[in-house]
Automatic annotation (TrEMBL):
InterPro entries: 3-oxoacid_CoA-transf_A (IPR012792), CoA_trans_fam_I (IPR004165), CoA_transf_BS (IPR004163), NagB/RpiA_transferase-like (IPR037171). The lineage of its organism: Bacteria, Bacillati, Actinomycetota, Actinomycetes, Kitasatosporales. GO terms for molecular function: CoA-transferase activity. It comes from Streptomyces noursei (Streptomyces albulus). This is Succinyl-CoA--3-ketoacid-CoA transferase. Gene3D superfamilies: Glutaconate Coenzyme A-transferase. Belongs to the 3-oxoacid CoA-transferase subunit A family. PROSITE patterns: COA_TRANSF_1. It comes from the Bacteria. Keywords: Transferase.
Amino acid sequence: MDKVVASAAEAVADVRDGASLAVGGFGLSGVPEVLLGAVHETGVGGLGVVSNNCGAMERGLAVLLAAGRIARVTGSYIGANREFARRYLAGELEVELIPQGTLAERLRAGGAGIPAFYTPAGVGTQVADGGLPWRYDGAGGVAVASPPKEVREFDGRRYVLERGIRTDFALVRAAKGDRHGNLVFAKSARNFNPLAAMAGRTTLAEVEQLVEPGEIDPDQVHLPGIFVQRVVALTPEQAADKQIERRTVAAAETAGRGRR
């Protein structure tokens, strides 16, 4: 039952070329930086990534992206990642963009053993009708477009069929975890991490604080250990290495009005 491995390198040792990875995090919050760095060190490529976005500020998945290790991304946000946009438009990367809530539910469904589900999100758009550019040809044309999806009517409303997602591996980051793999996520880091962890056939979790079994109140567990196969304990330095993607400070006049 002890799922702790000695290092991140050991945890990712069986990730091979062409593997699919579900990766937790949003922007720079809750990103499994250490595990992603270990994947980068292995030199594997042709990876299929399922994540909300593909890294930011040259961190997280952006490291693998810049190295040309990612072949396909399933996500919902490109944002200010210029390298992501460049590779996509240049035809170097296949990208399936889907509604954010649909992505979350596809991951959860895959982890729950649900092969597909119907949702109203995307009905009447290219999400359902097909034609979204998955890959460009590098000259402004579309080389690969999304196929149409099944649409059915229930109680007078139309819904599109979406498939659950399962990946070879999942990489997540938790604030606390025990040796059995039970995890607790802190605040906004509890974004896509539990869902990504559920979707992976083999789930690797880096934890900022490793505790012994029984030290986490069962009512506080966000993800039970049945979904986790390997746990990596971070060093204090690794756990503290967190950045803010964008700092926003209110003007003094605005802040003053808010206090009144």
